[in-house]
Amino acid sequence: QVQLEESGGGLVQAGGSLRLSCTTSVSINDMAWYRQRPGKQREPLATINNVGRTNYGDSVKGRFTISRDNSKNTVYLQMSSLKPEDTAVYYCNAPDVKYLYTWGQGTQVTVSS
């Protein structure tokens, strides 16, 4: 069973930055970051394929950067210019909802105003 482990969250002031990491138990070609804000459904944020091609949702475009280190089976999410509305639990998983793996525990990001 594929395991996903997110880390790197924390408390940060508005305008600050954080880098999240997602380590997978096996190599996975296409990966995505998601978040679930309080009272909201989980939403996709950014995707990356095995050769580094990326796509971003409008809410994070220009502020967040997804990247990967295939040698470490790790995908990153560099978040900058954080806003209080970015407060959420952040998860990684496959980008195609038909092929999702078991969700990890996620990592909490809290942005204070």
Number of strands: 10
Strand order of the largest sheet: 2-10-9-4-5-6
What's the SSE pattern? EEEEEEEEEE
Structural class: mainly beta
Residue windows where pLDDT falls under 50 for at least 5 positions: none
Alpha-carbon distance between the termini? Answer: 40 Å
**Shape, please?**
globular
Report on the architecture of this protein.
With 113 residues, the protein is mainly β. It is 0% helix and 48% strand. It is built from no helices and ten strands. The strands form two sheets. The chain has a six-stranded mixed sheet with strand order 2-10-9-4-5-6, with no helix packed on it. Strands 1-3-8-7 form a four-stranded antiparallel sheet, with no helix packed on it. Strand 7 and strand 8 form a beta hairpin. It is globular, with a radius of gyration of 13 Å. The chain starts with a strand and ends with a strand. The mean pLDDT is 97.
Give the tags.
113 residues, mainly beta, six-stranded mixed β-sheet, four-stranded antiparallel β-sheet, 0% helix
Question: Could you give a quick summary of the protein structure above?
Answer:
With 113 residues, the chain is an all-beta fold. The protein has strands spanning 4-7, 10-13, 18-24, 31-36, 43-48, 54-56, 64-69, 74-79, 88-93, 107-112. The termini are far apart.
Topology:
Elements: E1 4-7, E2 10-13, E3 18-24, E4 31-36, E5 43-48, E6 54-56, E7 64-69, E8 74-79, E9 88-93, E10 107-112
Parallel strand pairs: 2-10
Antiparallel strand pairs: 1-3, 3-8, 4-5, 4-9, 5-6, 7-8, 9-10
